[in-house]
Design brief:
449 residues; BirA Bifunctional Protein, domain 2; 3 domains; 3-stranded antiparallel sheet; 13% strand
């Protein structure tokens, strides 16, 4: 089962060649007998020492259109005139399943792959590394070929590399990946962390997404909840990116694996809403035999006498609205009466003084809150912003009851004249009647004139 990869290199070609053709990685020691086969068998029977062996070195490095000795000179000649900031070479990689292939077969496959892909126009060094637990090939290719054309690395050329590698592996009877994953390659650091059992940042992001996605039914609430956990979410082009708090790097959702793209998360949220189990609310329905008793029955009786409960339930919606409005005003008058008694407000002057006092407190709190907002505007550290934000919330909580009191003062003051006239009509009916008579006489005198 061979896997392939290729990436560009901007460093000097000689550095890449030194790594690819490293003697410690590509050389295998082979022990051979100095004499013929009969002598070897005789030595085994006699138990001779290892002095009868000769040690040879076999190096798995092959040059195509060049030799391992002159590869550096040939490639640098092709790269003359290429800016040092541009791509200098390409580093290819072909890895095999551990224990499935010998170094000789792996090297033969690598040489055949390099010939078919790049042998017509490029000098190539093919090296098989055997120092690790698995055999793998490395390829060094200059970015410019003998024709002067630059190598173009794209999805199409990589697909050709992968398909050619699979074809050759099948010819040698090796296994291949029939259905490669479309989720993209994992970062090498993540692969090493998984092997060691160390949780990675991607694991944490996936865990948080799973936990929040199970609880939300609206996609907007999902993103708001993720932001409340310290994540930064932004749209960069057509991709949605996420960054944990205190982390410098953004992660694209599609790179987190299957089930974590923007479309997949929205599908999970919609599925939650579709499968949500709604609990019906049991409405109270008294039976015909059930009758109120005790203090509750006495309370209903007084409400009935005072007119709070109508004798006949009206069927007109306007009548229902009128009843609700009467109840609202009755509650408002009751709260205003408690307010006047609480602060001993007997006259209009007392009411005005209290209103001015409340307004002064409101203005002081508003100024203090505005100073905190101006201070927070220039802060960037969330740890410093959070205490300031909590102070602002506390001031807003103090302002709410003061605003209610100030509004109540204005309402009482506006209606005080009407209330005084109503009281005069109730307590001094004779004065009211005399005023009506005076008004009638004035009207008659004007008419006679």
């Amino acid at each position: 089962m061979a896997t392939t990869k290729i990436w560009n290199v901007s460093a000097h070609v000689s550095k890449l060649l030194a790594y690819v053709a490293n003697k410690n990685k590509t050389t295998m020691e082979i022990e051979s007998w100095t004499d013929d086969e009969e002598m070897r068998l005789a030595a085994e029977m006699l138990g001779l020492s290892s002095d009868h062996f000769a040690t040879e070195e076999k190096k798995f490095v092959t040059g195509i259109n060049c030799t391992p000795e002159n590869a550096n000179e040939v490639m640098l000649t092709l790269l003359e005139g290429v800016d040092s900031s541009d791509i200098q070479a390409y580093h290819g990689y072909q890895s095999f399943k551990p224990g499935e292939v010998t170094p000789d077969v792996a090297h033969a496959i690598g040489v055949q792959l390099a010939n078919e892909l790049w042998g017509e126009d490029f000098p190539i060094i093919v090296a098989t590394h055997i120092d690790k637990g698995h055999v793998h090939n490395h390829f060094c290719i200059p970015a410019t070929g003998f024709s002067g054309r630059r190598y173009h690395d794209c999805n199409a050329t990589y697909k050709l590399m992968r398909d050619t590698s699979d074809k050759i592996c099948r010819e040698y009877g090796l296994s291949v990946i029939e259905n490669p994953s479309k989720d993209g390659h994992k970062h090498i650091a993540e692969v090493h962390a998984e092997k060691k059992g160390i949780p990675t940042m991607r694991d944490q992001i996936r865990a948080d997404i799973d936990a929040v996605a199970k609880q939300e039914f609206i996609i907007k609430n999902f993103y708001n909840r993720m932001r409340s956990l310290g994540y930064t979410i932004e749209q960069r082009g057509k991709f949605l990116r996420i960054k944990p708090y205190g982390y410098d790097k953004f992660f694209r959702l599609e790179k987190l694996g299957a089930g974590y793209t923007e479309e997949d998360i929205e599908a999970r949220i919609r599925n939650n809403a579709h499968n949500r189990q709604w609990t019906p609310i049991p409405f109270y329905q008294p039976t015909l035999r059930e009758k109120p008793t005790g203090l509750y029955a006495l309370y209903l009786h007084y409400c009935y006498l005072l007119g709070a409960i109508p004798k006949v339930i009206p069927k007109n919606p306007e009548a229902y609205a009128a009843i609700k409005d009467d109840i609202r005003r009755a509650r408002m008058y009751s709260e205003q009466a408690k307010f006047l008694g609480k602060y001993f407000l007997d006259t209009k002057d007392d009411l005005i003084r209290h209103a001015l006092k409340v307004r002064a407190q409101m203005e002081a709190l508003c100024k203090e809150r505005q100073k905190l907002r101006n201070k927070m505007r220039w802060m960037k550290d969330p740890d410093e912003i959070q205490p300031i934000r909590e102070q602002i919330f506390a001031i807003s909580d103090k302002l709410k009851p003061l605003r209610n009191e100030y509004a109540m003062c204005k309402d009482i003051y506006d209606r005080s004249d009407d209330i005084e006239k109503t009281v005069e009509r109730i307590e001094f009916p004779q004065l009211v009647e005399q005023e009506k008579q005076k008004a009638a006489l004035k009207k008659n005198g004007r008419e006679e004139r």
